[in-house]
Amino acid sequence: MKTEHPSQDRDVPGAGDPDARGAPVGRRVLLGTLGLGALGLAAAPSLQRGLESFLAGAADRDPTGLTGLLPNGGGFRYYSVAASVPREDARTYRLTVDGLVDRPASYALADLKALPQTRIVRDVQCVTGWRVPGTPFEGVRLSRLLDTAGVRPTARAVRFTCFDGTYSESLTLDQARRADVLVALRMRDEDIGHGHGGPARLYVAPMYFYKSAKWLSGITVTEDVEPGYWELRGYDVDAWVGRSNGRDDAPTS
């Protein structure tokens, strides 16, 4: 990657003037600079939210994934594999649980929020290399929804589908029953926004982030693991952080 260096041309103010280079900074200039720095710190959270909102919206219309290359102070990159993603809210959202279960169910967002919530704070690790430390997620343990549905003895896996109409994921039944696997409703102590896969997404704490499917709409209990979207394109099905995909990242949990 080419690195841009400051210009050393003679016509840069002060470049050829030793007195200009060594002149002390005035008190008013110093105080003004400190004031601007403080203003920047105070504005940082709102600026960050604005940047994330912009990038999330751009990603919705960018099936190439190039939006994910843009820098973001929050550490996350935004990826979408669909040309556009419809928006769901508390009025329209539904999560279905079906397949090899005795009691299929459909949950509205209010139903999910009424269930006991679990909070997990772990690092998020993407298989492309970026990592966001200490990220809180909160939601319903997937195991609770499976137990309520009554998983049949022949079941060995769970498939997840998303309302973008394209993405899918899978876990073994044992993986899905882990205490650190959630149907997440909150992220970083806020309701999950559309750009991060809201109003509900899968969160699989010990695996690479592609397993944590965004815009979750369906949970189907199956006999066998069905490779998900990226797994059909070469990623590992068992995506343990640091033990898959040819990477040696530190575990997230």
Automatic annotation (TrEMBL):
InterPro entries: OxRdtase_Mopterin-bd_dom (IPR000572), OxRdtase_Mopterin-bd_sf (IPR036374), TAT_signal (IPR006311). Residues 1-23 are annotated as: Disordered. Pfam families: Oxidored_molyb. Residues 1-12 have a biased composition (Basic and acidic residues). Residues 83-230 form the Oxidoreductase molybdopterin-binding domain. Coiled coil: none annotated. It comes from the Bacteria. PANTHER family: OXIDOREDUCTASE MOLYBDOPTERIN-BINDING DOMAIN-CONTAINING PROTEIN (PTHR43032:SF4), PROTEIN-METHIONINE-SULFOXIDE REDUCTASE (PTHR43032). This is Molybdopterin-dependent oxidoreductase.
